[in-house]
Amino acid sequence: MSTHILEIHMRGTAPTETPIPSDLFRRYISYAKNIRPVLSKEALERLRAFYLEMRAVTESIEGSPIAITARQLESLVRLAEARARIALRTEITVEDAEAAIMIMNKSLEEVGIDLSTQMRDIDIIMVGKPKSMQDKMRILLNEIVDLSKETGMVDRKLLLETLMSKYKIPAEESQKLIGRLIRDGTIYERKPGFLSKV
Q1: Rounded (10°) CA dihedral 27, 32, 35, 40
Q2: I need a labelling partner for 194 at 20 to 30 A (CA). Which of 13, 16, 135, 182 fits?
Q3: Looking at beta carbons, which pairs linking 27-36 to residues 24 or more positions away fall under 8 Å?
Q4: 37 backbone dihedrals φ, ψ, rounded to 5°
Q5: CA-only gyration radius of the chain, Å
Q6: How many C-beta neighbours within 10 Å does residue 119 have?
Q7: At what angle do helices 156-167 and 171-184 cross, to 10 degrees?
Q8: So what's the pLDDT on residue 22?
């Protein structure tokens, strides 16, 4: 398939002969769809061990982001199942489980690392924000609520100073968080330099 795709781009047209006859390829896919592989005991144990290993990392450090959830365990099973199905096997082997784990690890390394903590964080993939950012946004929102009790709004400069003195969040980072919350529609600038929670 890779040769076919690359030749199309190299020549600008499709080669006259495909690597696999399209009729055979259609029948192969149709046949593979009907296979329902089941987990072997070894594959089940490997997936369980990986899941528990990842959860243990999460639970060992107070306030650490969640590295894996039950939803990702389901995804691992589906990946391993797909690998067995494409090989036309009725049993999911430990090799299928290892391949699924490798894909998940690679995915987490590429898009699931919280750059501020260097920890794996499934929230980045699931909600688009690492746990560390969500925690800081929560702090920021709580401070807006506390500081705006009297007037319904808070001076941005006072908010930045409070975040720095109480929580050691640098002003530049606080500005970025404020910008994100404004874009999300969680807070708004009631008048220049003054913020309110929606």
Answers
A1: 150
A2: 135
A3: 31/88, 32/85, 32/86, 32/88, 33/85, 35/84, 35/85, 35/88, 35/89, 35/90, 36/90
A4: -70, 150
A5: 25
A6: 19
A7: 120
A8: 85
Q: 108 or 193: whose pLDDT is higher?
A: 193
Q: Is 21 exposed, middle or buried (0-12, 13-18, 19+ CB in 10 A)?
A: exposed
Inter-residue contact 89 to 37 (CB < 8 Å): yes
End-to-end CA distance of the chain: give it in Å, rounded: 52
How far apart are alpha carbons 58 and 69 in whole angstroms? Answer: 10
Return the SS3 of 165. Answer: helix
Q: What token pair was written down for 160?
A: 């930045």
Task: Give the angle 189-194-198 at the CA atoms, nearest 5°.
Answer: 45
Give the pair of three-digit tokens for residue 136: 């800081």
List of domains in the chain:
1-34 (no CATH), 36-127 (1.10.8), 131-197 (1.10.10.10)
Question: Which tokens sit at 52?
Answer: 């528990």
From CA 195, how far away is CA 198, in angstroms rounded?
10
Q: Which residues pair with 35 in a beta bridge?
A: none
Confidence label for 115 from pLDDT (cuts 50, 70 and 90): very low
Which structure tokens are listed for 112? 């699931």
Question: What are the C-alpha distances in Å from 18 to residues 30, 181, 187?
Answer: 19, 52, 57
